[in-house]
Amino acid sequence: MVTERELIARVHTAFSITGKGSSSWPDPHPHRNPRDEEYSRVSDPSKWRIIGERADAWLVALVETGLASVDTTTPIAWRRSPGTDLLRSALIVPHAPTALPLIIARSRIGTVDDAGVTLGVGVPAVCIGWIPDCGCDACDSGSQDVLDELDSLILRVVSGESWRVWFSGAREIVVVGDEGAMQTSGVFGSGEVQSLLDDPSCWYDYSGTSWITGQ
After folding, report:
1. Nearest in space to 67 (alpha carbons), one of 127, 130, 155, 148
2. What is d(CA 63, CA 72) in angstroms, rounded to the nearest whole number?
3. 160-195 pLDDT, tens per residue?
4. What angle (nearest 5°) sits at the alpha carbon of residue 87, between those of residues 115 and 11?
5. Cys staple from 118: which of 49, 108, 130, 197, with CB 3.0 to 4.6 Å?
6. DSSP string for 111-152
7. Mean of all residue pLDDT scores within the chain
8. What beta strand segments (E) does the chain contain?
């Protein structure tokens, strides 16, 4: 049985091949003081293709280790639209029978195809993240930051983390794992998030086993 450490090593090895078409870059704002004009500017959307190349490395590693198969022909049913400009999607089906499937979709940034990656989990799928979350020059935190984010989200699915998702209009709450790591988008009133967390009737719950251990 492959271990999590061995899987990550396979990803790194595969990325040395899939990532040859892109170059890494440092955080252009190490002290987080972007200029005002950077917030409305995406000077090089094509550089974000490095994220898709990292996602390709994950696909290679998951198949080579025997943990999953990849289906690029089945249409993906989303519980609601992820809000990104999706171009093509892959359904990654784990071989562990009670594990959650993963969706890796490519999205457009500006006029550049396949510059972003949208991730989903389950059937019908719920969006668990899109990378980069913006893509403008002001929000650019360097290539390693977004690659780490992609790795973390995929590894959470592969390791069998549970997901709770609530959404209404443009507002969304995602709670990950037993420790309850939470991310929100949209505007919430005072105490509203907690009241929603306390109401089990308004959540979509997704849970599965580890792709590696099946438990």
Report:
1. 155
2. 14
3. 999 999 998 889 999 998 777 898 988 999 999 999
4. 55
5. 130
6. TEEEEEEEEEETTTBEEEEEESSS-STTT---HHHHHHHHHH
7. 93
8. 68-71, 86-94, 102-109, 112-121, 126-131, 163-168, 171-176, 181-185, 204-206
Rounded Cα gap, residues 60 and 12, in angstroms: 10
Query: 3-state class of 10 per DSSP?
Result: helix
Nearest to 121 by CA among 78, 150, 81: 78
Contacting residues for 77 by C-beta, under 8 A, at least 6 apart: 123, 124, 125
Residue type, 131: I
Residue with tokens 């899939």: 18
One-letter identity of residue 105:
A
